[in-house]
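Possible regression after last week's pipeline update?

I re-ran a chain I had predicted before the update to compare outputs. Posting the input and the new output here so someone can diff against the archived version. Not blocking, just want to make sure nothing changed silently.
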Amino acid sequence: MTSIGVAPSTFQEGDEVVLARGTYPGTLGVFLRLKEDVNWADIRERNGDIRSHPVIWLAHSAKAALGSKN
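New output (post-update):
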């Protein structure tokens, strides 16, 4: 039997995130929750849209770490 491991998410609700990979790299947003398939997450993008993205595409936003509001 083959088992696929899932890495625990390092993101928590409210974390500032950025799409580091994928179709729209650089998109900023706020982490909302993991989906039922924990390899996907909902984020609220800066324009207010809530979209699902693969967790592997997400990174913590460096701007959040620097305290920037942009």
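Follow-up from reviewer: compared with the archived run. The chain has a mean pLDDT of 84. Marking as no regression found.
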